Amino acid sequence: MTELSVGKEVLSYCNKCKLTLAHMIVAMKDVNTIYKVQCKTCKSTHAYKDPSAVKVKKVTAKVKKASPGSSKRSAASVSDLWMDAVNNATTKSKAYSIKIKFELGDIIDHPKFGPGVVDKCIDGDKIEVIFRHDIKTLMHNK
Ligand SMILES: [Zn+2]
Fold first, then answer.
1. Rounded to the nearest whole angstrom, what is the distance from the C-alpha of residue 17 to the centroid of ligand 1?
2. Residues with Cβ within 8 Å of residue 42, at least 6 apart in sequence
């Protein structure tokens, strides 16, 4: 490991330049810890920011959607879909009955499948509903 000391060059994240750039150490906290650095590009002096710590944050961004190539929805992506739909729903849940007319976005409380969200209306008497583990086509409005 290279020795760190005042006057040495080090890579640090610069808040002004918004980049990881060469900085000169201007102050040390202790022998192994850099306290303040001066940006060689904008000449501003600021606290040392470890560039590797900055990078890690961006990489851990969540991958949300399943790959579009997969024709079959996996159990995980159905439950993700369901979770999103339930969280975005603004209406109260209704107990499922074949006689009731459901609208797009309605929450259905199904005795067998549990809570679901109406995703599509088909032919006026069928609805596609996203449940926790599966997507079902149900009859309604009879
Ligand atoms: Zn700078």
1. 4
2. 14, 16, 17
For residue 124, give the nearest of 110, 108, 103 by alpha carbon: 103
Q: What is the pTM of this model?
A: 0.47
HSE (side-chain half, CA atoms, 13 Å) at 75? 1
Strands (E), the chain: 9-14, 19-30, 33-39, 45-47, 93-95, 107-110, 114-122, 126-131, 135-139
- What is the DSSP-derived secondary structure letter of residue 7? T
**How far does the centroid of ligand 1 lie from the alpha carbon of residue 11, in Å?**
11
Residue 63, pLDDT > 60, answer no
User: How far away, in angstroms, is 47 Cα from ligand 1 center?
Assistant: 12
In single-letter form, the type of residue at position 39 comes to C
Reference 28, options 10, 52, 42, 55; nearest CA is 10
Structure confidence at residue 54 as a pLDDT band (50, 70, 90) = low
pLDDT tens-place string over residues 28-49:
999 889 999 999 999 999 999 9
Ligand 1 centroid – CA 18 distance (Å):
7
